[in-house]
């Protein structure tokens, strides 16, 4: 067992204790010392509260100054003593102890089922052990097995890291000239994440050095580059290599993968299994507006940002008011002479006081040097930013205002966020009503406010709510006949989200292509496997996206864990073909749809990228994060036809 070491000068520790999260420090000390005096009633933190008007919780513990000072002084003495005496680092807590310490830290009951998930998210329990032991039991079984991964973004890197650890051969095929996926492609001003980074990072690759609680694109991209090196993935990645088609060959039990290689030539690969890691937000959707090709100036999508186009003193049109538009608007408006924002539907926007908050130096120091602090810190972040909003997204069947909201809780959020709009827009009452959505909060991803309303109220910004009728060489003409002049048009109009894997032609066992089978109504078992497509796995596939909170990395790690169990079964049992049973998939998807209709994003008043042309929810998970983890945790081989 390693020993507890606390490096650094006394002054460093003292300074760090000013910045740490005190409830996290207390449970860390209880873990390190085994002494429950750290959990005294006097030190009990306030519950993680949601502040008035916002949904991003106050995570501090809310101590009186004298109690906080007492905790810091006692912690200083205890940590210095531990550093001097260097006792053995205690083993991870039991699941019961995890539940007990977490319940203290967050001041809410935590049951053991939830604590079991936190044990894995913190790395206290190695989730890879489940399939690792299985593979280790049959040495050499993976020798002739090869996996092709399509995409080297967040999901592909995650999958590659686990295959590498398992000693299974794999190749990652990436169409871009770099890894990073969405964090490589999206480079618009102020692009960043809306989940705190200490949760939006792999559970197996924590990063103590995040500079902000919600980091920006360059730092995220650098993180994924670093992970690629850390897990030894470079040698497995073929950049500028685009998969054009894939077909399952039943006789050989292998996939044939057609690709365009870096030299532009056609090439074919074979693999025992394919993992699609192409994401849901990969192919930009340009608006289908009459005359778009006639525009005289630069016109580009937010995910294809033109850094060569200088917006200074130009007239700029921004189409769309989703997350991307909201993020890019303030900096665009600060540079441009005039910005016209074309809004089809207003979105709900929430304040978040920590959005631009840098991570304090002492917090970074503690994450690096106080043993076990990083684990308990992540557990608290996961708790605070995952399923706490779940009650607000579920419909109360007895609710009396089902047109506008789902329940009393959802209605209270509507009130709070509507009040926030009015507060933010002050005298611009004309804007407030046009900025207030008519669908329930969480019908679409809640957007974090980065001074959106303040920017809309600027003198050089105009909010246009009339429908765009056509684009002409010098601007956009709306249905009221007005010409909105523009030198540059930015289409922040989202992605082709209902056509998973488009434009690849993926042909299954019976010769049907996936786009034909699915149309715009994709269905997969646990968002991962598809009947008639053996040995084929989708990460971030149908019905896996999250809206109410949480990190998409969490979802993908759950899926990768599931896929690894499938591959371990195939390899150790000599399974040539693994195909989910049609009836199992149907029953699962019936359940998914039935639940989706009772959730905020299934509300009939919501029109969004989550739904297909018939209003069926195809992108979002109908489960809380904890339930998703449970459902993907243990492979049940009877769900599959194994040959
Ligand atoms: P989006 O949410 O699909 O928003 C697209 C916007 O363009 C919507 O306002 C849409 O209006 C509008 N639009 C689309 N076609 C149009 C047309 N023909 N005419 C006029 N308006 C049109 O796309 P996004 O903002 O890129 O975000 C996509 C997803 O990416 C988000 O939901 C989120 O999951 C993720 N994202 C996250 C972050 C973050 O973490 N901070 C940042 C960016 C993106 P309607 O609303 O009426 O459809």
Explained architecture:
A hairpin with a 4-residue loop joins strand 15 and strand 16. With 643 residues, the protein is an alpha/beta fold. The strands form 6 sheets. The protein has a 5-stranded parallel sheet, covered by helices on one side. A 5-stranded parallel sheet has the order 8-17-9-10-13, with helices on one face. A 4-stranded mixed sheet has the order 6-5-4-18, with no helix packed on it. Residues 192-194, 281, 287, 289, 302, 319-325, 327, 342, 344-345, 445, 468, 492-494, 609 line the site of NADP nicotinamide-adenine-dinucleotide phosphate.
Return residue spans where pLDDT drops below 50 for at least 5 consecutive residues. Answer: none
Helix-strand makeup class: alpha/beta
Determine the number of helices (DSSP H or I, runs of at least 4 residues): 20
Terminal Cα separation, in Å?
A: 44 Å
Question: Which ligands are bound?
Answer: NADP nicotinamide-adenine-dinucleotide phosphate
Radius of gyration: 26 Å
**Overall pLDDT confidence:** 96
As a percent range, the share of strand residues is 5-15%
Task: Tell me the total number of β-strands.
Answer: 21
Overall shape: it is globular
Give me the side-by-side strand order of the main sheet. Answer: 3-2-1-7-19
How much helix, percentage-wise, in residues?
25-40%
How is the biggest beta sheet arranged? Answer: 5 strands, parallel
């Amino acid at each position: 067992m390693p020993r507890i070491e606390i490096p650094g000068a006394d002054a460093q520790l003292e300074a760090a204790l000013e910045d740490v999260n005190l409830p996290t420090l207390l449970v860390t000390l209880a873990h390190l010392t085994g002494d429950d005096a750290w959990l005294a009633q006097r030190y009990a933190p306030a519950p993680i509260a949601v502040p008035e008007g916002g949904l991003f919780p106050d995570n501090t513990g809310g101590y009186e100054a004298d109690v906080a000072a007492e905790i810091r002084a006692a912690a200083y003495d205890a940590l210095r003593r531990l550093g001097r005496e260097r006792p053995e680092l205690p083993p991870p807590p039991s699941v019961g102890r995890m539940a007990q310490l977490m319940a203290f830290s967050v001041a809410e009951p935590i049951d053991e089922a939830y604590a079991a998930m936190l044990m894995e998210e913190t790395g206290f329990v190695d989730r890879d052990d489940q399939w690792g032991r299985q593979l280790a039991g049959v040495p050499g079984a993976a020798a002739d097995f090869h996996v092709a991964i399509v995409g080297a973004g967040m999901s592909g890197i995650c999958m590659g890291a686990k295959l590498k650890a398992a000693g299974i051969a794999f190749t990652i095929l990436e169409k871009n000239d770099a890894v990073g996926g969405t964090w490589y492609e999206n480079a618009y001003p102020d692009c960043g994440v809306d989940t705190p980074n200490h949760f939006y990072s792999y559970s197996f690759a924590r990063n103590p050095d995040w500079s902000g609680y919600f980091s920006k694109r360059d730092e995220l991209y650098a993180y994924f580059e670093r992970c690629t090196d850390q897990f030894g993935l470079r040698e497995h990645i073929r950049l500028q290599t685009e998969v054009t088609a894939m077909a399952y060959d039943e006789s050989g039990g292998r996939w044939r993968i057609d690709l365009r290689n870096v030299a532009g030539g056609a090439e074919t690969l074979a693999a025992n299994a394919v993992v699609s890691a192409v994401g849901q937000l990969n192919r930009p959707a340009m608006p289908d507006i009459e005359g778009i090709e006639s525009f005289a100036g630069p016109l580009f999508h937010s995910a294809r940002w033109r850094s060569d186009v200088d917006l200074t003193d130009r007239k700029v049109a921004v189409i769309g008011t989703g997350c991307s538009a909201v993020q890019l608007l303030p900096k665009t408006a600060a540079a441009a002479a005039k910005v016209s924002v074309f809004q089809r539907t207003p979105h709900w926007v929430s304040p978040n006081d920590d959005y631009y908050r840098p991570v304090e130096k002492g917090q970074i120091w503690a994450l690096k040097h106080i043993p076990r602090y990083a684990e308990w810190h992540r557990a608290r972040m996961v708790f605070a930013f995952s399923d706490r909003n779940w009650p607000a997204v579920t419909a109360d069947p007895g609710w009396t205002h089902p047109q506008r909201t789902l329940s009393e809780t959802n209605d209270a959020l509507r009130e709070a966020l509507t009040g926030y709009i009015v507060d933010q827009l002050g005298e611009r009452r004309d804007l407030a009503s046009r900025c207030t959505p008519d669908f329930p909060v969480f019908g679409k991803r809640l957007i974090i406010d980065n001074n959106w309303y303040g920017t809309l109220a600027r003198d050089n910004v105009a909010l246009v709510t009339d429908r765009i009728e056509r684009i002409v060489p010098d601007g956009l003409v709306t249905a009221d006949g007005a010409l909105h002049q523009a030198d540059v048009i930015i289409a922040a109009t989202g992605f082709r989200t209902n056509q998973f894997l488009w434009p690849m032609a993926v042909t299954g066992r019976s010769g049907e292509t996936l786009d034909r089978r699915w149309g715009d109504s994709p269905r997969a078992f646990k968002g991962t496997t598809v009947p008639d497509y053996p040995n084929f796995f989708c990460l971030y596939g149908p019905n896996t996206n999250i809206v109410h909170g949480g990190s998409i990395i969490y979802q993908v790690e759950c899926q990768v864990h599931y896929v690894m169990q499938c591959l371990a079964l195939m390899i150790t049992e000599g399974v040539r073909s693994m195909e989910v049973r049609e009836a199992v998939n149907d029953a699962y998807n019936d359940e998914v749809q039935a639940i989706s209709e009772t959730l905020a994003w299934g509300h009939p008043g919501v029109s969004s990228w989550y739904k297909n042309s018939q209003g069926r929810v195809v992108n979002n998970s109908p489960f809380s994060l904890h339930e998703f983890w449970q459902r993907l945790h243990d492979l049940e081989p009877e769900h599959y036809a194994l040959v």
